[in-house]
Here is the input.
Amino acid sequence: TTTTTTTTTPPPPRGFVKVSTDDDQHPSTSFDSTFLIEELASVEVGQCIELCHETPECVGLHAKQLSFNGTFMYDCRLLSSTNASVMVEGDGVTYALLLGQSQLLFPSATSSTPTIPCVGLSNASIAEWLSLNIQDVVSTCNYPELNYIIEPIGTLGSLDLWCNETRNVFVNVTFQDGCAAHSTVLRFFLWAPFNGAEPARPEHYVCDNGFVGDTVIQCRCNHPTCSHCLFFYPEVCVKCNDSTVNHAGTCVDECPLDTVFVNSTDHGEFCLASHGCDNGVSPEGAVCQCKDPCNVCYETPEHSSCFDCDDDFYLIEDHCDDFALCLNNRIVDSPVDETCTCSASPYCKTCILEAATSDVTCLQCNAQEYLLGDHCVVDCPVEVGLVNTQLSNMTRECHNPSQCTLGAVVAPLSHDVFGDACECGPDCVSCNFTMQGAQCDLCANNASLHVAGCYKQCPVGFTRYGLESEGLVCRTPFTCTDGQDSTGNDCACDTDDQCAVCGWKADNTLFESYCNTCAVGYLHEGKCIEECPTGYLPNRTFGSRRGRFCVKFP
Here is the structure.
């Protein structure tokens, strides 16, 4: 029996292509350029050998020895920008890895210089802006994963965001992929609103309406509506004329929705991102302007918040106001809890203050005084027809006589506070404000009317007349006969009209009278009942129903 031994050629390392099985034969370097490798592999055996199309330029082969699970491994990575391949020999088989070529096209060669508004940005956001706006970056490397390293160069030393003037900035941008690392210098402008100051560097000289600064050197801005631009970079506008606004160095008809319109008398009209502004300067040093008369603010496209106002104004919530409401020695809605006083008007509790003139207009007096015009008095001057009027719990004023019912002034119709809220006092639902003061004429809550006031108890010797919680009256005891008292005024003995004649006795129980004669039913112990109780008999069961009563059975 003959046994045949078959030698199996091991598969190529991941990412490689087999090119020869002869150790002495050098593989061809002309591989199909469309062959793409998905990932760079480490080689388990052998060594890295560089084979380049153009040997003198292929100088960047990087062979890094790695140790993985005790086995020596080699990571072959080409760092030059030439199209090349890497050979690996081992186990009698020759393999080749086509790395490809790094070819990066930069925006500085294909597009205009970008302009970035520096207000409201940070170093990180500028780097992010550059990364997002770098276009036409192309790599033909088989490992095209790109990353960027953005570094400022030149005299700045950092991405300085001091926006005191528009200036050009250079950054070194490094692009790195699986094949190579490339660097280029990008230039952009940090745009800031025109501030009229002498530029810090010559390249930032401003062309001002056709001349460079105060010189006779003529110049011209690129945009037809731009009045001020950088002299050496006339495409970058720093101030537009009255017909347009400046947005990031370009004159436009109106600000974009995500920006804030700023109208500065000295520096023109321009658009800024959300920003803080302290007396005309942003935290980054750029020109800005709060809405008059605010000095310190934060501006967003949706809202303007003020934090400090001119001396002749009060800060109310987040805006400035000519007037302020002073209540209990505090400015109402003051974010800084500003103190105040109404002392210019004696006895005044709440007043309006005018910042510019320091005038005090009283609105509300202390608990015991009345407001007469814009000041407080202990009593209203009845000699001129004005009476004490309580319009609310803490609002006492001097007015002509009026009637208050159910919390509103109801008469006369021509009264200057007709329909306004009013208060008659505890338990009083209707009153008249007269020269004698508030005169109640209707009480509620089981209180009884007595001498124009409401009381829970009547004076000793008086009867509490009334059958409901509203409308009770303190009266001298009287008899009510068939719905009238002795003076002919209407009265009632009970709620169901069973009693024809009753007496409202002194110091009686609430809602109770003492019946003397029943219209229906039978009289028993001062009340009218339908049947006599046990031990009692009706005095009669025939004839008129009026006057029947119960008689104790002998």
Observations:
- Residues 1-7, 9-111, 153-157 have pLDDT under 50 and may be disordered.
- The CA atoms of residues 464 and 510 lie 7 Å apart.
